[in-house]
Structures are given as structure tokens and as C-alpha cells.
Amino acid sequence: MSDQTPPVLRKIIHIDMDAFYASVEQRDFPEYRGKPIVVGGKPDSRGVVATASYEARQYGIKSAMSCSKAYQLCPTAIFVYPRFDAYSAVSRAIREIFSRYTDIIEPLSLDEAYLDVTEDKLGIGSAIDIAKSIKDAIKKELNLTASAGVSVNKFVAKVASDMNKPDGLTFIGPSKIKSFMEKLPIEKFFGVGKVTAARMKAMQINTGADLKKLTESQLVAQFGKSGKFYYKIVRGIDDRPVRSNRETKSVGAEDTLAEDTNEDAVMHDLLRQISETVAKRLQKYQLKGKTVTLKIKFEDFKLITRSRSFSMPINEAENIYAEAIKLLNEANIGFAKVRLLGITLSRFYDDAPLENVERNQLEFDF
Asked: Which GO molecular-function terms appear in the entry (predicted)?
């Protein structure tokens, strides 16, 4: 008889708000309710869709789609600019609800988070009951809906939360993980993007069962370090803990130009605006960064980045702007036309606690 104590299975909940930005808009403005709402910008702008209401999604509108394409799909849609201050305030209220049940909360963005409720503060015990209680509180107190996934690890909980949207609750217990992962379409695997999914399908990897046929060394040969991750997750192995104090890695902002351009004055003006936005965000969280990165996307969608690091950290708009201009000049873009510019600060100097940081990488289109 073995004296070994079996490992304790963790109880992980992944909460994902339903069409968060659009739902907040519909809640706050009754005239938007029941109508297709696109959050992102004007229909004739170069902006992208941040999110769309479920009414808009019925027309095929998706996040990251251009606003002009969204307008083509649904000319009657209502296009609104994001109100990040409002979304941040709601996100903090959601976080307060989470904290009633556990202090082990790992936010991924304004609208989703992992919770470890292996030992919950109220002694409820059942992760399913806790998820129900959280969803009920969000609906009653904030007039919004959330979907929840419950399982023994982060990966399965995350996938589960997307299974029955909106307002869903999906539990995948230990005995069901194997069959669940084998049947899962490869594009549903968290961490497998469009490009990787296309590569996998070209290799006749269409489901988890197909992925499972490859050895770890074969996956590493094809996909590098990610291959080790794919090997484990398709077997339901995910030992990553829920990290309650995720370290913020970078803070940034980006914007799409109204028209593709190579005019210095236009690009400089936009970089000044972006620098001011980034500076405000850094100062809000009492952060200073030692590395400035400039992101440039050209009219043909080719993307380049240029970075510079300093011995002393900065968070002032003028300093950020000055370095961004230097990086733009050094990029030597010539006559190539630019469609998007972005600035990111990283390598933070200030290690102060960040109770209200919304995401690991604070970066938004605006």
C-alpha cells in the first residue's frame, strides 16, 4: 500500500463576459437594446471592430474586422466609439464580485479572468455553485451576462467558457477531459491562431484526436516551443497556476490613420497623440519603462517594430514622443505609406502593486 497522498485537483473557473463592450453600451443606452451595435469607430473609418453585439454577430460581424467591412455586412448597425473608462469601471465592479469568493484571481483582460476556488472564502465547496453565484451576482447587480467554464485546469476551463455563449455555464470534469479534448476542433484550442490552425489542417490535424497522434518531438519540430504546450494540453495536462498578481509586461496604444500616408507631419501628429495616451496610462498605474517600441504597419499590411532602451525609465509624453520620432526616422520608410502606428513601453522600473491593472498588456486601439 502506497503512503503517497494523491494530488489535490484544483477547481478553476474561467469567467468571460458576453460581448462586453457592446453589452455595456446596450445597458447604458436603452435605444441600443435589441439592435446591432458595433464598438470600434465610424463605419467609414479605418478602425477595427473591438466587439459587436450578438444582434450584429448574426450578420457575420466579428472582432478585429474592419469597420468598413462590418458596415458592408450590416448597413443598419449602430457604430459607437469605445468608452474605456466606463468599461474599466464595470470591470472593477466585476472583480469585486470575484473577490467575495477567492483572492486568487488572474485577469486576462477587462472582460475575462481565471479564478482558483479550490478553497473558496465562503466555504461553498462546489465550483459549479460558485460559478452560478458569480453569474447571478453579475446579472443582478450589473445587469450584464457572463459565461463560465469550470474544470480542473486553466486551459480546459477557458475552452469550456466558450461552449455555450451567451450566459452559459459548462463543467468539464476529470473523467470527461480526455474525450472532450479529442473531439475539440483544432481552431478551438486556446493558443492556436488562424495561421497555426491552417498549418495544422494542411498536416491533416483537424481535431484533438489528430493532434494527439504526434509525438512531442514531432510537434516541437513543427511548432517550436509551442509544440511542448500542444502535446500537454491535448492530453488535458495544464499545471499553470492561477496567478493573482500578474506582472504587467507592457503598456501601449495604437491608432489607424484616416488615410495611408508617408507625410511626416501627419505621422508626427498621430505619434504625439499616442504618446500622450500611453503617458496617461503609465502614470495612472505609477509605471515607468526603460524600453520604447514603435510599431509601424504599412499599406500592404507589412508590420515592423523598432525599439530603443535607456538606462533611466520614462513615462512622460514628451520623452516618449521624442523617442518615437527617432525610431520612425531610423526606420527609414522612404516613400512607403503607413496605415497604423503604435507605441509600447516595457521593462518597468516601478514594482508597486497594481490592484487595478486590467490586463497583462495594456494596449487598446482608440
From this structure: damaged DNA binding; DNA-directed DNA polymerase activity; magnesium ion binding
E strand segments, the chain: 12-17, 37-39, 51-52, 78-80, 105-109, 112-116, 146-151, 169-171, 250-261, 289-298, 303-314, 338-348, 361-365
Asked if the model's pLDDT at residue 357 lies above 50, the reply is: no
Residues 52, 132 within the same domain? yes
Name the residue range of residue 130's domain. 9-172
Within this chain, do residues 318 and 194 fall inside the same structural domain, yes or no? no
Q: What's the pLDDT score for residue 42?
A: 82
Active-site residue list: 112
**Where is 57: in which H helix or E strand?**
helix 54-57
Q: Is 18 found in the same domain as 167?
A: yes
Each residue's pLDDT tens digit, 4-37: 544 568 999 999 999 999 999 999 999 999 999 9
Supply the CATH number for residue 296's domain: 3.30.1490.100
Same domain, 180 and 164: no
- Among 120-134, 136-150, 236-250, the least confident range: 236-250
Q: Is 136 annotated as a binding residue?
A: no
Task: Check whether 111 is labelled as a binding-site residue.
Answer: yes
